[in-house]
């Protein structure tokens, strides 16, 4: 079957027309060439065949799709949006990869292992003859890699068009949409925030407040995919939060490549956004801030301390340091020194008592000496970070750091092990045994033995699996601690506090299906035409309505051809009988 060249980017899917597709004049001519033939048939078998499309059917909207996402919470949010749109259109989202007709692989480009998993999944899908659509930062950053040839790609800012890409892929076309969202030439944050989505956890909403960043870190491949900073307007983010709470969400995560830089491109700031958001957080619900780099939080320290002390905001902040050596930080082009990082941490620990500071460290960056590494070790020993993400350096293709002289692999591995040993030498929660804490229960533990909750400082607390606790605030007494968790026993006479929000959606249920959207999906042609009239033509919902309209038109054509055949047959029988 003919397909679009993968080396040529298509302006729009509507440009693709297969040479085998019949044209209107061909259909009209075919009607005149019909020769009716009377035959007996098994009516029961015929009806069964009519109700079940053939196994090789390419009718879009009836296939099963398996979605796999790697990487950060921003990527997970993108995956949830894509799943929601596909499910709203009629596709079935399945957790069984082997049962799926199409695999949607949403990739991460931060480290080599993540891309290796992505590449291996593509190979496996090809071996199993699955249709494939690729998404995420890997194909966005390097779409012309050999192992991506011939495969459909949906860009990180084009996720609102995932239905179109999947539809064309199922038909046998190879489609690539990698463009940027712009308004009057200005880059936007990405696809609309009010699209349907399927939350992995119905109690947690992940909101991407901006895409891209203002940095140019020499090791970072994500910058090649997400680009420069582009922020969503405050009112759109607040509306998304309101909608989430109306659907039973009790915890919101704000995410981006750098939340601290939010708003600098549109004349606002992170504190301005946060003050608007806390106004709409219902009692009993919580807000968690995402990662922020030190340079962009320095000028907002006073305001950030006030916000992190708010009762509905977790006293938690993720501030990557990457290295405690100024020499290494300079080679990384991190735009801050260790003193800046310490100033941020010390200020927040003083103004927000008990705050949890999480950080990241890269071991074995090119040029890192033993002395540089020992400075990083001393920083960890001094601050005893309760949450520490230790990463061995991986040179990513196309980055400046990949061209630098590399440290031997065994040295990088040893430094990673040494720092991990330091991290595991202390227990950050031992002193909290005996405390009474209020925790918000949101999920089940990996071993399915406990429910997972978080206290005021976003510290993990395991509680008994009582179904009445899920999505609720519970008061517990801490009786045990581990490296990454505490265990809490619910207080016998304590009241289980229910947040002042709606009942959460069922797992797998599509979020954001407004009445308008439901009408477009559920009604027939007249209703579809009516509801789509006032919708911008670029919106995903109007395109879905258009696809349904085409389907109805096709059915109408088949019906008319069938009636014509019956008329000819009737005329033929009358002539024979006479």
Automatic annotation (TrEMBL):
Q: How does it sit in the membrane?
A: Single-pass membrane protein
Enzyme Commission number(s) from the entry = 2.8.4.5
Q: Where is this region: Disordered?
A: 18-58
| Ranges where the MTTase N-terminal domain occurs | 63-171
Q: Does the keyword S-adenosyl-L-methionine apply?
A: yes
Q: What is its main location?
A: endoplasmic reticulum
Q: Does the keyword Signal apply?
A: no
TRAM domain span: 430-492
Query: Cross-referenced PROSITE patterns, in alphabetical order?
Result: MTTASE_N, MTTASE_RADICAL, RADICAL_SAM, TRAM
UniProt-listed InterPro entries = Elp3/MiaA/NifB-like_rSAM, Methylthiotransferase, Methylthiotransferase_CS, Methylthiotransferase_N, Methylthiotransferase_N_sf, MiaB-like_arc_euk, rSAM, rSAM_horseshoe
Example of a GO biological process term: maintenance of translational fidelity
Top-level division of the source organism's lineage: Eukaryota
Q: Which UniProt keywords apply?
A: 4Fe-4S, Endoplasmic reticulum, Iron, Iron-sulfur, Membrane, Metal-binding, S-adenosyl-L-methionine, Transferase, Transmembrane, Transmembrane helix, tRNA processing
Pfam families, per the entry: Radical_SAM (PF04055), TRAM (PF01938), UPF0004 (PF00919)
- GO cellular component terms given for this protein: endoplasmic reticulum membrane; rough endoplasmic reticulum
The record's free-text note on cofactor binding: Binds 1 or 2 [4Fe-4S] cluster. One cluster is coordinated with 3 cysteines and an exchangeable S-adenosyl-L-methionine.
Cofactor(s) it depends on: [4Fe-4S] cluster
- State the SUPFAM superfamilies in the record: Radical SAM enzymes
TM ranges are 556-574
Stored PANTHER family:
RADICAL SAM PROTEINS, THREONYLCARBAMOYLADENOSINE TRNA METHYLTHIOTRANSFERASE
Q: What does this protein do?
A: Catalyzes the methylthiolation of N6-threonylcarbamoyladenosine (t(6)A), leading to the formation of 2-methylthio-N6-threonylcarbamoyladenosine (ms(2)t(6)A) at position 37 in tRNAs that read codons beginning with adenine.
Report what the protein is called. tRNA-t(6)A37 methylthiotransferase
Source organism per UniProt: Catagonus wagneri
């Amino acid at each position: 079957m003919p397909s679009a060249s993968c080396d040529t980017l298509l302006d729009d899917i509507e440009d693709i027309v297969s040479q085998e597709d019949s044209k209107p004049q061909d259909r009209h001519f075919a009607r005149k060439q019909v020769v009716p033939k009377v035959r007996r048939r098994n009516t029961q078998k015929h009806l069964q065949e009519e109700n079940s499309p053939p196994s090789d059917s390419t009718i879009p909207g009836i296939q099963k799709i398996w979605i796999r996402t790697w990487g950060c919470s921003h990527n997970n949010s993108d995956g949830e949006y894509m799943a929601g749109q596909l499910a709203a259109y009629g596709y079935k989202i399945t957790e069984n990869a082997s049962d799926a007709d199409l695999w949607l692989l949403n990739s991460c480009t931060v480290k080599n292992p993540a891309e290796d998993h992505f590449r291996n999944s593509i190979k496996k899908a090809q071996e199993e003859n699955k249709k494939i659509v690729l998404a995420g930062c890997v194909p966005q950053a390097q779409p012309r890699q050999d192992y991506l040839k011939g495969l459909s790609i949906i860009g990180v800012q084009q996720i609102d068009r995932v239905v179109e890409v999947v539809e064309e892929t199922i038909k046998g076309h190879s489609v690539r949409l990698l463009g940027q969202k712009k308004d009057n030439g200005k880059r936007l944050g990405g696809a609309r925030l009010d699209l349907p989505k399927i939350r992995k956890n119905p109690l947690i909403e992940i909101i991407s407040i901006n895409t891209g960043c203002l940095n140019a870190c020499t090791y970072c491949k994500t910058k090649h995919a997400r680009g420069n900073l582009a922020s969503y307007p405050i009112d759109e983010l607040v509306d998304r939060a309101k909608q989430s709470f109306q659907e039973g969400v009790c915890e919101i995560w704000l995410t981006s490549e750098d939340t601290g830089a939010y708003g600098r491109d549109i004349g606002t700031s992170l504190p301005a956004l946060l003050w608007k958001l806390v106004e709409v957080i219902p009692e009993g619900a919580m807000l968690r801030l995402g990662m922020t780099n030190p340079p962009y939080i320095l000028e907002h320290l006073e305001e950030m301390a006030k916000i992190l002390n708010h009762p509905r905001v977790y006293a938690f902040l993720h501030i990557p340091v990457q290295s405690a050596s100024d020499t290494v930080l300079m080679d990384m082009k991190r735009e801050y020194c260790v003193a800046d990082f310490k100033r941020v941490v010390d200020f927040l620990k003083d103004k927000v008592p008990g705050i949890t500071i999480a950080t990241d460290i890269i071991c074995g960056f090119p040029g890192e000496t033993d002395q540089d590494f020992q400075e990083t070790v001393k920083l960890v020993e001094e601050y005893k970070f309760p949450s520490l993400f230790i990463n061995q350096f991986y040179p990513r293709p196309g980055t400046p750091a990949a061209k630098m002289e590399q440290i031997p692999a065994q040295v990088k591995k040893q430094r990673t092990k040494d720092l991990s040993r330091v991290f595991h030498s202390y227990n950050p929660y031992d002193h909290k045994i005996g405390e009474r804490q209020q925790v918000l229960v949101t999920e089940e533990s990996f071993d399915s033995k406990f429910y997972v909750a978080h206290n005021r400082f976003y510290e993990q607390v395991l509680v008994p699996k009582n179904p009445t606790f899920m999505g609720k605030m519970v008061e517990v007494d801490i009786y045990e601690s581990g490296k990454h968790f505490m265990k809490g026993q619910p207080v016998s006479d304590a009241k289980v506090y229910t947040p002042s929000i709606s009942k959460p959606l069922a797992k797998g249920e599509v979020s954001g299906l407004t009445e308008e959207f439901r009408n477009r999906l559920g009604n027939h042609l007249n209703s579809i035409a009516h509801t789509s009239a006032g919708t911008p033509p670029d919106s995903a919902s109007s395109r879905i309505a258009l696809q349904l309209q085409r389907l109805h038109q096709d059915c109408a054509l088949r019906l008319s051809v069938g009636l014509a055949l019956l008329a000819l047959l009737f005329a033929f029988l009358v002539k024979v009988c006479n």
